[in-house]
Design brief:
- The longest helix is centred in the last third of the chain and has 17 residues.
- The protein has 16 helices and no strands.
- Helix content is about 65%, strand content about 0%.
- The mean pLDDT is about 95.
Length: about 260
């Protein structure tokens, strides 16, 4: 992966790999037509468009109903990622599957939630979950709150990363920019998480909140800064990095307590 840009890994070779995985479950999957369509259209596309093209061609060629297709795609995911890294190296090929669920699964909430959980154990569901937060805010937040106490660190991370108001390379979640309070129970569940991977996500979510709702963010941090664990101390410091860089008096005082 280090020798070429990520986008160039979404190519003919990847299309063939996905086709072979699908053919193991669906022997009649039209591999040649699928690969040809990808190859014919992909050359001038950037990363996100390459991923979406492959998802679209899966939709065109897989042939089942959307819930059936999602269940099939989950079955080809393979072993879970046990590490806190590797989502864009060993598991980069999962991205078109995540895009499929994001784009086509929106009318099928339960099967899609299950798929997102399985996807994020290998790659990430942080972009896939966001249309569901817009369409089904209460139901999706209930799922994410449960996930914030999940035994799997990737799923716990998704519960905070997915609700970030200003997640990079994703559409802003205006509902949480206007009112981040629905996010807070999730962050409370994660404030002492032992996984650095989760801690970083919680800190980044808090950093997003501070950008648009400074007083709410301050109240959370002041509450957490009372007799904090080492995990919480790290989260607070990382969440305050922009204010600390600006030498904000309040942030400096918090860190020096």
């Amino acid at each position: 992966m280090a020798f070429k840009k990520l986008k160039y890994w979404f190519d003919e070779e990847l299309a063939k790999m996905l086709a072979d995985k699908l053919m193991a479950l669906k022997p009649n999957f039209p591999k040649d037509a699928f690969v040809k369509n990808v190859v014919d259209k992909i050359d001038n596309l950037e990363l996100k468009d390459r991923v979406e093209l492959i998802a679209d061609e899966i939709h065109t060629h897989l042939g089942g109903t959307i819930p059936e297709n999602i269940k099939t795609l989950v079955k080809i995911l393979g072993p879970e990622n046990e590490e806190e890294t590797g989502m864009f190296t060993n598991f980069y090929w999962v991205m078109p599957i995540a895009k499929y669920v994001e784009k086509y699964g929106l009318e099928h909430f339960e099967v899609s939630m299950n798929a997102i959980a399985e996807i994020t154990k290998r790659n990430t569901g942080e972009y896939t979950i966001r249309p569901y937060l817009v369409k089904y805010p209460e139901n999706t937040m209930a799922v994410l709150k449960d996930w914030s106490q999940h035994e799997n660190k990737h799923i716990r991370r998704l519960s905070s990363e997915g609700v970030r108001p200003r997640l990079p390379w994703a559409k802003k979640l205006d509902q949480f920019i206007e009112n981040p309070k629905p996010i807070l129970p999730i962050l409370e569940n994660l404030k002492d998480d032992t996984s650095k991977y989760v801690q970083k996500s919680v800190a980044n979510c808090l950093n997003d909140i501070l950008k648009d709702n400074l007083n709410i963010g301050k109240r959370i941090i002041e509450k957490w800064n009372y007799n904090p664990t080492k995990e919480r101390k790290w989260i607070i410091k990382h969440a305050l990095r922009n204010l600390l860089k600006a030498q904000d008096d309040w942030a400096v005082t918090i860190i020096n307590k």
